Structures are given as structure tokens and as C-alpha cells.
Amino acid sequence: MPQLRLCVLASSSSGNCSVLAMDTPRGVRTLLVDAGLSPRRTEGLLAGLGLDLSTIDGVVLTHLDQDHWQPTWGSRLPKSARLWIHRRHRRRAERDCPAGRCIELFGDDSPFEAMPGLLASSCLLSHDESGVACLRFMTSRSALGYATDVGSPSRAMIEHLRGVGTLAIESNYCPQLQVASARPAFLISRIMGGGGHLSNHQSAQVVREIGHTGDVVLLHLSKQCNTPDLARQAHEPNPHHAQLAQHARSRRVIIAKPDAPTDWIPIQPPSCHVQSRPVQHAATTGGGQLRLF
Q1: How does pLDDT run across 61-94, given as a tens digit for each residue?
Q2: Would you tell me how many other CB atoms lie within 10 Å of the CB of residue 151?
């Protein structure tokens, strides 16, 4: 069976884009998770991995902020590539996606086939006005959780990510550095106010709550208000909680960079039995297609 693997091409407020890859009878096929880098830059980064734009079967967007979606992608994606957005973001898509591009809509009620052999499901979480899609990707042998630009931890988020083999989650800021920064008060309030981003502590809290033991990939570190060392320290074992400390020692913490790709990260099997739900296309689950004219 094909092995699912992840490479975070870049992750920061300057642009976010990750690539999921699988070996298939047609060769390596890929899915982009967010497309916040320019097509030219992404093409160069893919070339460094031995890939090109023709391998892209689809793009799944967590939301449409400019650091997660560049509208110039509409004319550069292969015609067969499917562009997936949460139906809550439909109105923004009508404004920011190019005319003629067929867009697939997904929701939180049913899974969808993001590319052949790769099932995805979503959970809409708090972020600014329209929210952000927290994603779960599954094959017959692997499960990835992907959560970025999340306003604050929630029970819905915990349950949606529980049991994944590999978890990619934002660890955006250190509260002390955020408060001491020269950023305007309104921006600090937006980031820390429950509708912006996860702090290092909140990110680690989610990992502990779900009892995650597999690899953790930390996304979207602030260049001004965080450091890789601070983010990593938040995920270190807690000597006062033996079981949690054992989980923390057994996992690998990988820091996504703002300007360089990670190594390929194999997506691990679910850590507990997760019953697969049948694949249904958006047209049969209340989603559907949106063609922009």
C-alpha cells in the first residue's frame, strides 16, 4: 500500500504551503495543503523534491487569508487539479478565486476524497470572521492531523485530531514576547484573543489532551514573537506527570521553517482504531461545485 508523506515547504505569516505525496501506479501524486506561496516559488521548491506542478491532483485550503492562498494559483494549477474549500468560505472564494476555476466545497458533516486514495475530513474552528478548517487526512494505513491559524483549543478540535499518527499543529507565539513586542495593541489582541493563533503553551496543551505519541510538526512560528527553542521547550516532557512524560519522550518534534522545506515526514498509522467512513463526493453530501464566472 502507498505510504503517505508530508513536506512543509514553508510556514509563516509570509506564506504557508505543505505537500502530501503518495506513490501510485501513475507515479508520485501530490496534494497541496494551502497555497500561500507564489506558484513560481512553489514550483522551485517542488523541483528540489523531484516533483513538478503536473503531479498536483488537488489543493485543500484551510482558509483564504493571503498567507494561505495566492489567487494567481488559479491559472497555474493543472486543469484536472481540484481546489477544495470549506463551504463557510464560499463567499470569500467568489471574490478571491479566478473566474472559470471549478471549486469543490466540503463541510464538517462528511469526509471527501481529496485525491485518489486519500480521505479528508474537517472541523471548522475559530479564526477571525469565517473560521478555519482543521483537517484530518487518512489512507488505509496512515492518519495526519493538520491544524493552523486556530483561535484557541476546543473540545471539537481535540476530538477531531484524536488518534492521528502524525500531527501538524501551529505553535505561533510566546505570550511574553508577544506582549513585549512593538506590535500595535489591536494586533496583539487579535492574535491572543481567542480568534487568532495558538501559543506555544496552547499547542502543547492540545497535544497532551489528545495523548498524542507520534511525530509532531510545529507550524506557523512567528518570526518576531517566537523562536524554535521556545516552541520545542513547550513540548518537552513534564516530570510531574509520568504518563504524559512518557508520551512526550516517545515522539519527535519537527519545526517547520518560514523559508525552507522540511525533510519528508512519513505519516504514521493511527494510534488507536479509527473506523473509516465511506468516501462520498461533495455533490452527495451537501457540498457541491462552485464555478466562478
Answers
A1: 999 999 999 989 988 999 899 999 999 998 888 8
A2: 22
Q: Using one digit for the tens of pLDDT, what is the confidence trace for 142-174?
A: 999 999 999 899 999 999 999 999 999 999 999
Encode burial over 104-131: b for 16+ CB neighbours within 10 A, e otherwise.
bbbbeebbbbbbebbbbbbbbbbbeeeb
Residue 31: per-residue pLDDT:
98
Q: Which three cell numbers stand for residue 9?
A: 515547504
Round to whole Å and give the CA distance between 119 and 175: 36
pLDDT at 50 over 70: yes
Average pLDDT over residues 17-36: 95
Enter the pTM of the model: 0.89
Q: Specify the pairing of strand 288-291 against strand 112-115.
A: unpaired
CA–CA distances in Å: residue 220 to residues 9, 17, 54, 77, 94: 12, 10, 27, 24, 26
Across the beta sheet with 112-115, the strand order is 112-115, 118-125, 132-138, 143-147, 166-170, 216-219, 253-255
d(CA 83, CA 31): 10
CA dist 135 and 115 (Å) reads 14
DSSP collapsed to 3 states, 130-145: CCEEEEEEECCCCEEE
Task: Please answer whether residues 172 and 278 qualify as being in contact, where contact means their C-beta atoms are separated by less than 8 angstroms.
Answer: no
Q: How far is CA 205 from CA 92, 210, 216, 244, 293, in A?
A: 31, 9, 13, 11, 44
How far apart are the C-alpha atoms of 256 and 148, rounded to whole Å? 12
Look up residue 101 and give its amino acid.
R
Written as one string, the DSSP assignment of 235-267 is: TS--TT-HHHHHHHHHS-EEEPPSSSPPPPEEP
